[in-house]
Design a protein that fits this description.
Blueprint lengths: L2 H23 L5 H15 L4 E11 L18 E8 L5 E9 L4 H6 L2 H7 L9 E3 L2 E3 L2 E3 L10 E2 L4 H4 L3 H4 L1
């Protein structure tokens, strides 16, 4: 068999595996899944209203022919990016995979289906709850490369962590 034939077969098998296993292994998140995830974050990490963490991972690939530097990342190898929302037990809730390796996590997020669905509030998150008359949204936490949003939080930047205790207040 030729290379293109085998490549087509591999692609068809991967699509069939995803189509048949995804609903069983990683179903579309809904309010019940998000609430269960939030319960784990509260019990395990004492972090109420957090439903997931988000991060990107660069997977090394063989350089595709005639693609220039699209897949060449800052770590000096060719890659594709997996962006994932993960629960407190380190299980994938939803993923976005396949963006070019040259793109940073922040840009991967900005161009992802995950960001679009979080912004449009159609990813199945429970509605905000009132806490003392103030609406308290469910949130996702990420590292410094992710923007601050109503639904996305992150730790203090590293530069702020270098301040003395007196300077922080």
């Amino acid at each position: 068999m030729g290379r293109s034939t085998i490549g087509g077969i591999v692609e068809e098998v991967c699509e069939a595996l995803w189509r048949n296993l995804q609903p069983k292994i990683m179903p579309e998140p809904n309010k019940e899944i998000w609430r269960a995830s939030e319960k784990f974050f509260e019990e395990k990490w004492n972090f109420p209203h957090c439903v997931a963490t988000i991060d990107g991972k660069y997977f090394r690939i063989k350089a595709p022919p005639h693609r220039g530097s699209e897949f060449f990342n800052y770590k000096k190898y060719h890659s594709v990016v997996l962006l994932a929302l993960v629960d407190a037990n380190k299980r994938f809730l939803t993923v976005d995979v396949g963006q070019y390796g040259r793109v940073s996590d922040g840009h991967v997020f900005a161009n992802s289906n995950i960001a679009m669905r979080l912004a449009k509030q159609n990813i199945g998150l429970p509605p905000d709850e009132n806490f003392g008359g103030v609406p308290l949204p469910y949130i996702v936490i990420g590292d410094e490369v992710f923007p601050l949003k109503k639904y996305l939080s992150r730790p203090y930047p590293r530069s702020a962590r270098r301040l003395s205790e007196a300077e922080k207040f």
